[in-house]
Automatic annotation (TrEMBL):
Source organism (scientific name): Gimesia panareensis
Molecular function in Gene Ontology: 3-oxoadipate enol-lactonase activity
Pfam families given in the database record: Abhydrolase_1
Phylogenetic classification of the source organism: Bacteria, Pseudomonadati, Planctomycetota, Planctomycetia, Planctomycetales
Record-listed E.C. numbers: 3.1.1.24
Protein name, entry field: 3-oxoadipate enol-lactonase 2
Keywords: Hydrolase
Length: 268
């Protein structure tokens, strides 16, 4: 099946998006500081039954960069506008990893009529602690001063499990290359946006769409206990734990994650 890369003007920037397959729409939102390519195994699998829409968010991949701060709400508004341009009329199943999950909460808040279900991978609902905010702002400073190369390798132990790093070193190498190819201003803008993101932990019981939460058993950024707690508060959520993988579960264990997603989508 064909996969198209389209450049679309969205809210004043050029947004690159991969569109593949036919059927009910599934919107896949990548993590930080990556691009739609992190979802390639899911795109390949899901396009057999679904229309898969996988954009590069503002500041990443082939999309335009905004200098300053890009809020999670801004990313959500970009996605809504993109769906309008692509003439997607029916509510989407939105899958988001990490930062993509933060954007998913905003999408639910502002565009509930466009949302059918959620797939939340390795993410959380609360805002950053003071320490978390400070760490993000330190990274902003480092990236703007020394470029993405200064942070790329250091991020890998937080993104991938020990097992993945040892058994599939090419995953880490590909992630490093992806991060290093990202513009410093794009990284800084979304990092600032994450530092000031809203706290959705008190709203979870109001999110009444079906939801699948996916978490790596060795995820140190958003451990299973964090995601299980989120799942427990959402009326129609279930949590799927993937063994021996870290924060990038869809990339580290695509077979298992694809199977869980396929089963969930069938139930929707």
């Amino acid at each position: 099946m064909s996969q198209q890369l389209i450049d679309q003007s969205v809210n004043g920037i050029r947004m690159r998006v991969c569109v593949a397959g036919e059927g009910p729409p599934v919107l896949l939102v990548h993590g930080f500081p990556l691009s739609h390519r992190m979802w390639q195994a899911q795109i390949d699998h899901l396009q057999q039954q679904y229309t898969v829409i996988a954009p590069d968010l503002r500041g990443f991949g082939g999309s335009g960069v905004t200098v300053g701060t890009v809020s999670m709400e801004q990313h959500a508004r970009d996605l809504s506008e993109l769906l309008d341009h692509l003439e997607i009329k029916e509510p989407v199943i939105l899958g988001g990893l990490s930062m993509g999950g933060y954007i998913a909460w905003e999408f639910w808040k502002h565009f509930p009529e466009k949302l059918k279900a959620l797939i939340l991978c390795d993410t959380r609902a609360d805002a950053d602690s003071e320490e978390g905010v400070n760490n993000r702002l330190k990274m902003v400073e480092l990236v703007l001063r020394h470029g993405p190369q200064a942070v790329a390798s250091a991020m890998i132990p937080n993104l991938l499990s020990v097992t993945s790093r040892e058994q599939s070193p090419e995953i880490g190498q590909n992630l490093i290359a992806e991060i290093e190819s990202t513009e410093a201003e794009g990284i800084a803008a979304s990092q600032r946006g994450m530092a000031e993101r809203s706290d959705f932990s008190g709203m979870l019981e109001r999110i009444e769409v079906p939801a699948l939460l996916v978490v790596g058993s060795e995820d140190i950024l958003t451990p299973p206990a964090v995601m299980q707690a989120v799942s427990a508060q959402m009326p129609q959520a279930s949590c799927f734990e993937v063994s021996q993988v870290g924060h990038m579960a869809p990339l580290e264990a695509p077979g298992q994650v694809n199977q869980a997603i396929e089963k969930f989508l069938a139930s929707c």
